[in-house]
Amino acid sequence: MFERIKEDIQCAIERDPAARNAFEVLTTYPGILAILMHRLSHWLWTRGLKWLARVLSNVARLFTGIEIHPGAQIGQRFFIDHGMGVVIGETTEIGDDCTLYHGVTLGGTRWNKGKRHPTLGSNVVIGAGAKVLGPILISDGVRIGSNAVVLKDVPEGMTVVGVPGRLVSGVAEKDEKRQAIARKMGFDAYGSTRDMPDPVATAINGMLDHIHVMDKRLEDMCKGLKGLGAEISDLQLPDLGPCELNHIDSKEIKDAVTREDDPGDTENKSES
User: Fold this and answer.
1) Structural domains of the chain in order of their starting residue, each with its CATH number
2) Which of 94, 110, 114, 117 suits a disulfide with 89, CB 3.0-4.6 Å?
């Protein structure tokens, strides 16, 4: 028991740069006080002293502003930073090395008895004000952004933001494609920043995705024509950035467009 208390205090020192020593953490951190009192109330709960366990948890809530039901199962090195407004329901299960910030709710969405609160794996971090509701699984290594509302299972290692919660990790491949297209076009793809709530960024991301699809289709067409014996060298397009485009003579472009629009003129010239 004392070893677990020592681990709880040490993890607070490691995760909070404002912590100076173990005595300060033990006496002034509401998150540490709440988890220590929960360890005791959970011990009473599992031994059938449920009323006494509830009374102790209410006392802890009175002093810390953190409500943890005695029936909740919490692993080692659990840290609640600041803590005010945190609510953890009865059937919640929390793994090792998890961190919660103030205003987090691990709540239920049904009135039926049984499992109705979330299960957290190890190394889960939940930002301030986030709500994780229902008997869902938050796998190992998940990060949940501030004020997100999570109602569905989250795979391992993902990040969740928004209302309702949506996954924003796992899109590295698409981002790499966008950045490659942007480099080809010769500008800094600030719009490819992952999941920015910016209409300009969204528009640029859409343009980059569209250009990538068109490049892929053109490549497939070239391969098909090559299979039919076409000269691929006549079909390749130069990779021109803005610097190269600026050096192209406007008269050359105009002449090329004129020849393209008037095929009869080209035929007359060839006959002559």
Assistant:
1) 2-167 (2.160.10.10), 172-239 (no CATH), 245-272 (no CATH)
2) 117
